[in-house]
Amino acid sequence: MVSAASLSVKVMDEKGGMLEHVALALVPLSGPKPTLRNDHAEIVQAAKTFMPAMSAVQTGTAIHFPNRDTVRHHVYSFSKAKSFELKLYIGTPAQPVVFDTPGIVVLGCNIHDQMVAYVMVADTPWLAVTDAQGQGRMADLPEGEYELQYWHSRWVGRDEIAKRRIRLSGAQSETLIIGERP
Fold this sequence. Notes:
- It is a single chain.
- The chain is mainly β.
- It folds into two domains: 4-34 and 130-178, Immunoglobulin-like (Sandwich); 40-122, Cupredoxins -  blue copper proteins (Immunoglobulin-like, Sandwich).
- The protein is built from no helices and 17 strands.
- It has a five-stranded mixed beta sheet with strand order 6-12-11-8-9, with no helix packed on it. The protein has a four-stranded antiparallel beta sheet with strand order 13-2-15-16, with no helix packed on it. A three-stranded mixed beta sheet has the order 14-1-17, with no helix packed on it.
- It is globular and about 50 Å long.
């Protein structure tokens, strides 16, 4: 039987402030590869805002984009990891969008330029997004060698995802300090 480990990650900026909305992915470097599951997620449009602002999903996840506003939205992405358009609509499109390539996806609304959200797509089920206290947590992890991948919107325009190699055994904590560059 494989022992279970857990990881708590605290993310700060260069001045010591806690960073919310940092996407985290833990990719195993040793042992069996994790099973890729066909998950579903949701990014809601309400009050002319995408919620959540940052998502972390496993490769193959189908994301629904319900519009809960009374105005039409035109959701799109021209990102290398996923390019798509959901033209002017209210309600929920019949088909979700499948995010099938790892990387960073920037979402926008062609009608409301202030609407922006981000999706980190990774080949792992072990994902988290930091909360307002800069904390992200993952539990029930097999012990072993991992690559901790992380990305924040201050790096928008860069497809590069920051990486750190770690070894997990038992309960573990990591602190990341994120600057202007990965």
